[in-house]
Specification:
This protein is an alpha/beta fold and 731 residues long. Helices cover 44% and strands 14% of the residues. The protein contains 26 helices and 19 strands. The strands form four sheets. The protein has a seven-stranded parallel sheet, sandwiched between helices. Strand 13 and strand 14 form a beta hairpin. Helix 15 packs antiparallel against helix 16 and helix 16 packs parallel to helix 17. The chain is globular.
Length: 731
């Protein structure tokens, strides 16, 4: 009656309803949300929850779903929402997507899981040299409760507790029992590889657990077969002679690689080389690509779709959250497959990762590198010249006059605009560097490494407008006609294509992607120049005396507070959240960490976000979220097993004498330890410089010296473990 009356009040036009179902999957109440005309009505899926059904009427009485109806119903179905079409009199109904009942999740058996890790349990019986760790059982119990109670658990557990086993076992048990994916995210690749290559196989083998777990990396970590194939066939496409040897090695590696990820490559390619072959969202033919069914990236996504456990890094989770927030989709696939239980290891990094991910950063070098993909600053070779040749070769069939016009423009005003923009980048960064020299009273013969926050004191300084803001505005103004011309070129060439193939689309995809990246750089410059009370702005400036290269300048922005974001997009959206690390508390209190994630009011997170309820998942509507904290002490005897020393006679790292002095100190120390050491740096430049100083003599004395970046991390750590006396230099 309510539906019929609402339709009648609109004189028979279409109305969009959301229906709530009873235990028998019958609609027991409806609410109208949108009112259209006799042909269509807005579909407001955000008002429907999993377990509901969306309903709209067809005034014609023909209940055949339109293409739009099917598309909307597909989106609804992915979120566990049914879809019905009715006539105006409510005498007939057409089911497009069946309604689903929300299932009650089965709790995991905590005592049984704890028994597996206790003396006399499966792991103790089958693992030689097993040591029982009471703190591990405490953590396993807390994590299990977070799964069973849809809770948020914050656990600090010192090194040696066995954190990974304590959260992996409940995650696997929950996933197998309730057919729900669990995502485990870490900050470092080393820990991800430990989970995938050591901990998870150990659990699978010793506990007889049948589950699938995959390591999922960011898209840019995978090689694109189409791009590599095109480069192999067209050596003059977007590459120079300095790339040749590395690319040839990559072409050979493609034939044998297991997963096509950069970590599987036997060497670390230059950034510019990997950029040419890596998988990119804005440079992808998707299902139209001839390599789609054998694509490394999509194969990884297919494996993830089948797996119970997904291991990823924090940045990938942040990317996934950004897409979900933008689309309000917490039940379908985004960057990651649908998941509702999240474990964040190394959680002390979460705030920093969120700050970095949702911030922006523009450097002169980065912008020039993007421009270099279009045309080389030295020779003019690059994508624009390549496209001109393809126009001449009739790859893009167009009238002769048009072809001649575009080739003349590419050789003339396109290159002129390109050079003007590149010069503008150099000029803007140089003027900013000189302005900072003046502001800080910096001498040209001293090293500089500073961060200067953009405050009213800086923006009101006489140098801000002419030497910082004006050059950047000029840069943006110079870029606009060039970007418009690039867009015009793309559209003109794309219009000539009858069928999109890798041969004709590869240059155009690269053209569109390069244009988009430059546009993104310009947007970030404008963001940097725009005052925003919610964001922090700063300039990073580094310079070495008598350096041949230009000073390094970066324009940065970041949200001042990521706590509301983490609270709303993680704590209130996912059914279980576990955050763990060895360093979360300060003076045995979690206050600072809880405030950084928006959970300082531990018992007042609000109701669990209804959008996070998945098809087949348990329903907790009306349940208050709770955050529990636990602190577990280390089993190690640090007082007797660790020696900490700080050299007091080294110069400052900014001093020109520091590398030589540090090299002497490190060299003496490594002779005392007989190698067998990990030397950690905060700078790749310093790593390379000191490694080059100390490694020849050390290796001559029988201490192999490994350096991060010389090969993949897995191979490095394997060599470090296997060769006695080895020294590993890392960043």
């Amino acid at each position: 009656m309510a539906i019929r009356a609402e339709i009648a009040s609109l004189e028979g036009a279409e109305v969009f309803f959301v229906g709530r179902l009873d235990s028998n999957l019958c609609v027991e109440e409806v609410e109208s949300y949108a009112f259209g005309n006799r042909n269509s009505v807005p579909a407001l899926l955000q008002y429907a929850k999993p377990g509901d059904v969306i309903i709209h009427n067809h005034p014609s009485g023909n209940l055949e779903p339109s293409t739009a109806d099917i598309e909307i119903s597909s989106l609804a179905g992915e979120r566990g929402i049914g879809s019905y079409i009715i006539d105006n009199e409510c005498d007939a109904v057409r089911t497009v997507v069946k309604a689903t009942r929300l299932q009650v999740a089965e709790p995991i058996e905590i005592e049984a899981l704890a028994g597996m890790l206790s003396p006399g349990g499966k792991l103790a019986d089958r693992l030689k040299g097993y040591e029982f760790r009471p703190a591990q059982i405490e953590m396993l119990t807390e994590v299990s409760r977070a799964f069973n109670d849809d809770g948020v658990a914050v656990v600090e557990a010192d090194t040696g507790t066995g954190k990974s086993m304590a959260y992996l076992l409940p995650a696997i048990a929950w996933s197998l029992k309730n057919q729900e994916k669990v995502v485990v995210a870490t900050n470092t690749i080393n820990l991800q590889e430990q989970l995938i290559e050591k901990d998870l196989p150990l659990l699978r083998q010793t506990l007889d657990l049948d589950f699938d777990a995959v390591l999922l990396k960011g898209r840019n970590n995978y090689l694109c077969r189409r791009k590599a194939d095109y480069l192999a066939k067209h050596p003059d496409f977007a590459r120079d002679e300095s790339h040749a040897d590395q690319l040839d090695s990559i072409f050979e590696w493609i034939r044998t690689t297991r997963d096509g990820s950069r970590e599987d490559l036997g060497f670390t390619p230059d950034t510019g080389v990997w950029d040419l072959v890596m998988s990119e969202a804005d440079n992808c033919l998707r299902t139209r690509c001839p390599f789609y069914h054998n694509c490394f990236f999509y194969n990884a996504r297919r494996r993830a779709a089948r797996a119970q456990l997904i291991v990823a890094n924090h940045h990938l989770v942040m990317a996934d959250l950004a897409v979900r927030a933008e689309t309000d989709n917490y039940t379908g696939s985004a960057v990651l497959p649908a998941y509702h239980r999240l474990i964040l290891d190394e959680a002390h990094h979460v705030d920093d990762v969120a700050t970095h991910y949702f911030g922006s950063r523009v450097t002169g070098r980065g912008t020039l590198n993007q421009l270099g993909r279009l045309a080389s600053a030295r020779s003019g070779d690059g994508l624009l010249r390549f496209v001109s040749r393809k126009i001449h070769e009739r790859l893009y069939p167009m009238p002769e006059d048009n072809a001649r016009k575009w080739m003349m423009r590419l050789a003339g005003d396109f290159l002129a605009m390109h050079r003007d923009l590149a010069s503008g980048v150099d000029e803007a960064m140089d003027r900013i560097a000189m302005a900072l020299d003046d502001l800080e009273g910096l001498s040209a013969n001293r090293s500089v490494d500073l961060r200067r926050r953009v405050t009213a004191r800086l923006t009101e300084n006489p140098t801000w407008e002419p030497n910082i803001r004006a050059p950047l505005i000029s840069l943006v103004t110079t870029a606009r006609p060039y970007l418009e011309a690039l867009g015009e070129l793309y559209r003109a060439l794309h219009a000539t294509i009858e069928e999109e193939t890798p041969e004709n689309m590869s240059p155009l995809l690269e053209l569109r992607a390069a244009t988009g990246r430059i546009e993104s750089q310009l947007k970030n410059i404008l963001r940097f120049l725009t005052k925003d009370e919610e964001r922090c702005r700063w300039i990073e400036y580094r310079r070495r005396p008598n350096s041949r290269g230009r000073a390094f300048v970066a324009l940065c922005t970041a949200p001042l507070d990521t706590a509301p974001l983490i609270r709303e997009k993680i704590l209130r959206r996912f059914r279980t959240v576990v955050m763990t690390s060895a360093t979360l508390a300060i003076e045995k209190k979690f206050d600072f960490f809880l405030a950084s994630i928006g959970a300082q009011d531990q018992g007042k997170l609000g109701l669990l976000g209804s959008a996070s309820v998945a098809p087949g998942a348990s329903s907790s509507r009306g349940r208050e979220r709770m955050v529990t904290t636990m602190m577990l002490t280390t089993p190690f005897d640090y007082d007797n097993q660790v020696y900490v020393a700080i050299p007091a006679d080294l110069p400052s790292p900014l001093d020109d004498e520091f590398p030589a002095a540090a090299a002497r100190f490190i060299s003496r120390s490594l002779r005392i330890t007989q190698g067998r050491a990990f030397v950690l740096f905060t700078s790749y430049r310093m790593l390379n410089e000191i490694h080059d100083i100390v490694s020849p003599d050390l290796e001559a004395e029988g201490f192999p010296c490994l350096k991060q970046g010389s090969t993949g991390r897995s191979l490095l750590t394997q060599s470090f473990r296997e060769q006695i006396g080895t020294v590993l230099f890392g960043a």
